[in-house]
Write a structure and sequence with these properties.
The chain has helices at 12-18, 39-45, 50-55, 57-71, 84-91, 107-111, 118-121, 123-135, 149-156, 166-186, 205-211, 213-222, 236-243, 259-262, 284-299, 323-336; strands spanning 75-77, 93-95, 99-101, 141-147, 192-196, 227-230, 250-252, 269-274, 309-313. By secondary structure, it is of the alpha/beta class. The chain has one domain (12-336): TIM Barrel (Alpha-Beta Barrel).
């Protein structure tokens, strides 16, 4: 399969990693890099609600750009939430501070959804992405995202009575909505779109193969080399299924899998896998020591063996992570790798 050539190369390290081109210093971006650990975000939250920050494009742009300005990540990721498609389904989503739903999901509700109206509903997200791309420095990449169907089903049915008809109808409906959501986001000149599917790690291998893989396969075939996938601490067996998807671009490996020993066994770019728990260490000297061990491990591999690696965490940044750790992580990765 030939390399996809972007019409514009924004961040060269990110481009190189996605195309598995050798380089000594990898790109760096973190899941939840715009969020509660960051003083920039905390100051905005004093004036605006979470929903306002997501739904007002100017605010979503400001939150998204904050980590780029303060930490100099290689890529920005849209500030939004995976649960808005459930609000579109009529569940009445609010945040207080976590997600709450006014209505339960039921079969009748799904049968009466006018899917074609989703584009108007999600316009705030498209407007946000266009504004971010316009204001993002030209040497920075841009990432979009949606939630995975199984993860959205988990949120939608946490308090529901069991209905054997609901899962099948939900997956069919949400597949259509997320497909439209992905199409809309990718019109905004994204470098990559992530499918965040945390709850899929709880599925059996057979369930993962029948309920998750078809959706990822469909999206990666519709948008080859533009789709990345994440589930928390992915097992080796589930990871092997992802490796068979030729048009999938990237997956995230937890610290349970030795990432650099995997790079030469797959066409995928691999993201991770510094532990987000270790990233949360408050003692500066202890964190520096742990990070030094990680960098020593990385330096045991030469740059040709690191082709395709994106430096990141095995999960998102926790709200209690010291900002100083973020600065140190980026500085050490960029200055200590050989």
């Amino acid at each position: 399969m030939g390399l996809e050539i972007l019409s514009v190369i924004y961040n060269l390290p990110f481009h190189n990693a996605l195309h598995r081109i050798e380089q000594s210093v990898p790109p760096i971006w973190l899941m939840r890099q715009a969020g509660r650990y960051h003083s920039h975000y905390q100051n905005l939250k004093k004036k605006y609600s979470f929903e306002e920050l997501c739904r007002q494009p100017e605010l979503a742009c400001e939150v998204t750009l904050g980590p780029i300005q303060d930490f100099d990540f290689d890529a920005a990721i849209l500030f939004s939430d995976i649960l808005f498609p459930l609000d579109f389904l009529g569940m009445g989503l609010t945040f207080n501070p976590g997600p709450q739903f006014k209505n339960q999901l039921d079969v009748k509700q799904l049968q009466n959804i006018e899917e074609e109206s989703f584009e108007d509903y999600i316009k705030f997200q498209a407007d946000s992405l266009n504004l971010i791309r316009k204001n993002l420095p030209k040497n920075k990449s841009l990432i979009g995202f949606v939630g995975g169907p199984i993860t959205l089903y988990h949120f939608a049915t946490r308090y529901n009575d069991n209905d054997p008809l609901l899962l099948g109808l939900f997956l069919k409906t949400i597949d259509n909505i997320l497909t439209l959501n992905i199409d809309i986001q990718l019109k905004s000149d994204l470098d990559l779109l992530m499918i965040f599917d945390t709850e899929a790690n709880k599925l059996t291998d057979d369930e993962f193969k029948s309920k998750v893989i078809p959706f990822i396969k469909k999206q990666s075939e519709r948008h080859p080399n533009k789709i990345g996938y994440f589930t928390k601490n992915i097992t080796t067996s589930k990871y092997e299924m992802l490796k068979e998807l030729e048009d999938l671009k990237l997956t995230v490996l937890g610290s349970n899998i030795d990432i650099l020993n995997e790079l030469d066994k797959t066409h995928l770019s691999l993201q991770g896998n510094f532990s987000n728990e270790l990233f949360n260490i408050e003692d500066k000297n202890k964190f520096k020591s742990v990070l030094g061990e990680f960098i020593h491990y990385i330096n045991d591999f030469d740059s040709s063996q690191r082709a395709g690696w994106i430096s990141s965490l095995d999960h998102g940044v926790q709200k209690t992570t010291p900002e100083a750790n973020v600065h140190m992580f980026i500085d050490q990765i960029r200055t200590k790798l050989v």
